[in-house]
């Protein structure tokens, strides 16, 4: 993928190889639609560099998702929707049937980008339904409108999630979060981090323990960065330290995001979530999951059928291109795990705070 | 600390700044007494480089322990004993009282190097008792002999631990281990890895899942390296993946080492051990701890009083000098945690396989 020319947004920066490198801390937008282009913030380079790229070819959007330059279940769903709209805009035909064949090819490319987050597939379903109109021109416009609608609805959902969830956070709480479920991951206000931010805005004194989240360090790189921008005190820990702090009763609750939630409340989320949930319950610490309705997959009775993405072993065996283990050693790299619903104290969606039995409480129609 | 001139041992290498860099895989000795010098393998540089240093000043030995160039509870105990002998040898006096004052200062330096592994303090007690003889010359010799005796006893202990523990490992087992408890950590055959090696030598087909063990990556760097040298199949995982593989019933048992075991069987070991033990029990997976009697601290009724070392936050916020989190973010870095005995299926010492109630079974006189 070639990251295209990107004009500066705000802040100090410099142009290198056609890409703006922004050095100053600033409010970052994960994804932004600019007529005919999709601007994405390259999350793989944060926090050292804020590199924005304006993508004009849908295949670059597919790659941005695959390579996790854009990541986080809601952000992936929004980005895929815009990516489909972008690809559709470039189809040069006035024949509806030809247009639909090409559109399906574009959607197929997105459907193969990442398997676990259901938001992607939900977005593609919506975009497919939206491909309607008197002619190809109207269809293209309808797709852009639908992508924007998905983005707006998801942004609104994160606001409502944050307001609902903030009630669970008491003044003085130390909250543990894993991976990153903030504005970058949601292209909105955030889910897990949104709740923390909303509680902070209610003048509650909140402290956060953020797990670094190996292998790709979303906690160390992104969560720490987002919390620092909000002046919320954060302490970084390695993933293996969380249990120790739970045992020491230093953590009042855990809040994480989700990539797919089954009808029974089983939660697929970043690898390590299951472990945190088990150790939370062992220490009587509430374990909350925050996610929009678009993350709920009612077609799955349980989490056992969620496809778990296996990523490259290089992410584990190397660090920034430097190998950390002897040559010839292989690694496993499942990117997600499944937390059975019995460990989940509540699931916070835009519909409110849902509790067991989730088969009933999650029945709210998905967006 | 200045790592001194070190002659090549075996294998291809080159001399740089007075230190031999050995490039070829070879059997490595963590610690070796050479008349008047202590040769230590710098474990912080493995597996990329095998750098040996011949230390002639006890203060360099203290630093080698503090900086974790030598690490692992048994290896620390052995190294401290040799370090005391080294320091004592250099005391220039024939006055017994003056000698004893200086010796106590040396011992005090070692006692402040690292707080958690009790083997260090047990070694110092033994060295203190061994400082006896008709004159200073005899006392110096007695100290060298005692250090060598500690080393020999610990080597023999790891052999017996490995033989006892191998009986717990069945053909076809997938064993999970955390951090590093092999020859490097023990200056012997290994404890947790010793058991795995002994089972492998009994022609059992064993596979190992090794956690990388953030922040200092002893699993990725040392355990993977040691197992590869023994041709034992090993797959590296991040610390947060262990629970997922337990949940998937891919792990038949867990074996770890220990830094201090209380009289009731509570186990202080590398941070993350407690979490592994909790998730093991949740999934009915046996959780074994392998350690010599010198790791048992009968003076502590429970693990709650084990001093937990807090190391530099830089180990968490940086990787090889490159910062991974934004400037201004702090990190916690407890190096150990305590696993309550109720999660421990058995403790394997040179006296055999000990089970609950540990207050009884661990009563075997410590070395």
Question: Which properties best describe this structure?
Answer:
homodimer, 367 residues, alpha/beta, Four Helix Bundle (Hemerythrin (Met), subunit A), Rossmann fold, 2 domains, seven-stranded mixed beta sheet, 12 helices, 19% strand, globular, disordered N terminus
If you had to describe this structure to a student in words, what would you say it looks like?
The structure is a homodimer of 367-residue chains. Chain A has 367 residues and is of the alpha/beta class. Helix content of chain A is 37%, strand content 19%. In chain A, the strands form 4 sheets. In chain A, strands 8-7-6-9-12-18-19 form a 7-stranded mixed beta sheet. Chain A has a 5-stranded antiparallel beta sheet with strand order 1-2-5-4-3, with helices on one face. A 4-stranded mixed beta sheet of chain A has the order 13-10-11-17, with helices on one face. Chains A and B meet through helix 8, strand 8, helix 9, helix 10 and strand 16 of A and helix 8, strand 8, helix 9, helix 10 and strand 16 of B. Strand 8 (234-237) of chain A pairs parallel with strand 16 (330-331) of chain B, so a sheet runs across the interface.
CATH architecture of the largest domain in chain A: 3-Layer(aba) Sandwich
Which residue ranges of chain A are poorly predicted, with pLDDT under 50 across at least 5 consecutive positions? 1-26
Backbone structural class of chain A: alpha/beta
Q: Which two chains form the greatest contact, residue counts included?
A: A-B, 51 and 51 residues
CATH topology of the largest domain in chain A: Rossmann fold
**Molecular shape of chain A:** globular
Helix content of chain A: 25-40%
**Sheet with the most strands, sense and barrel status of chain A:** 7 strands, mixed
Mean pLDDT of chain A: 92
CATH superfamily of the largest domain in chain A: Translation initiation factor eif-2b, domain 2
Portion of residues in beta strands of chain A equals 15-25%
Strand order of the largest sheet of chain A: 8-7-6-9-12-18-19
Measured distance between first and last alpha carbons of chain A:
32 Å
Number of domains of chain A: 2
Radius of gyration of chain A: 20 Å
How many strand elements of chain A?
19
Tally of individual helices of chain A: 12
Indicate the multimeric state.
homodimer
CATH class of the largest domain in chain A: Alpha Beta
């Amino acid at each position: 993928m070639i990251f295209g020319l990107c004009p500066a947004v705000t802040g100090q920066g410099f142009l290198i190889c056609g890409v703006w490198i922004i050095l100053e801390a600033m409010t970052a937008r994960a994804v932004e639609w600019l007529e005919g282009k999709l601007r994405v913030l390259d999350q793989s380079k944060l926090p050292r560099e804020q590199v924005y790229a304006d993508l004009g070819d849908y295949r670059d959007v597919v790659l941005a998702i695959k390579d996790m330059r854009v990541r986080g279940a809601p952000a992936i769903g929004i980005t895929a929707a815009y990516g489909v709209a972008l690809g559709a805009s470039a189809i040069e035909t006035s024949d509806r049937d030809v247009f639909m064949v090409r559109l399906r090819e574009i959607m197929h490319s997105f459907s193969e980008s990442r398997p676990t987050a259901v938001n992607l597939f939900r977005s593609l379903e919506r975009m497919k339904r939206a491909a309607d109109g008197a002619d190809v021109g109207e269809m293209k416009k309808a797709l852009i409108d639908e992508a924007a609608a998905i983005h707006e609805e998801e942004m609104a959902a994160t606001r409502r999630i944050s307001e609902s969830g903030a009630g669970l956070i008491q003044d003085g709480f130390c909250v543990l979060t894993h991976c990153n479920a903030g504005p970058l991951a949601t292209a909105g206000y955030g889910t897990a981090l949104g709740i923390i931010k909303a509680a902070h805005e209610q003048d509650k004194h909140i402290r956060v323990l953020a797990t670094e989240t190996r292998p790709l360090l979303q906690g160390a790189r992104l969560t720490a960065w987002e919390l620092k921008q909000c002046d919320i005190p954060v302490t970084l820990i390695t993933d293996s330290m969380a249990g120790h702090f739970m045992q020491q009763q230093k953590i009042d609750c855990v809040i994480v995001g989700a990539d797919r939630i089954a009808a029974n409340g089983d939660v697929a989320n970043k690898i390590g979530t299951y472990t945190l949930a088990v150790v939370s319950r062992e220490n009587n610490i509430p374990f909350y999951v925050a996610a929009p309705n678009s993350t709920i997959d009612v077609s799955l009775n349980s989490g056992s059928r969620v496809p778990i993405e296996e990523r490259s072993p290089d992410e584990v065996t190397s660090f920034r291109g430097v190998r950390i283990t002897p040559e010839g050693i292989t690694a496993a790299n499942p990117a997600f795990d499944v937390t059975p619903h019995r460990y989940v104290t509540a699931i916070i969606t835009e519909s409110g705070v849902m509790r067991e039995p989730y088969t009933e409480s999650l029945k709210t129609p998905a967006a």
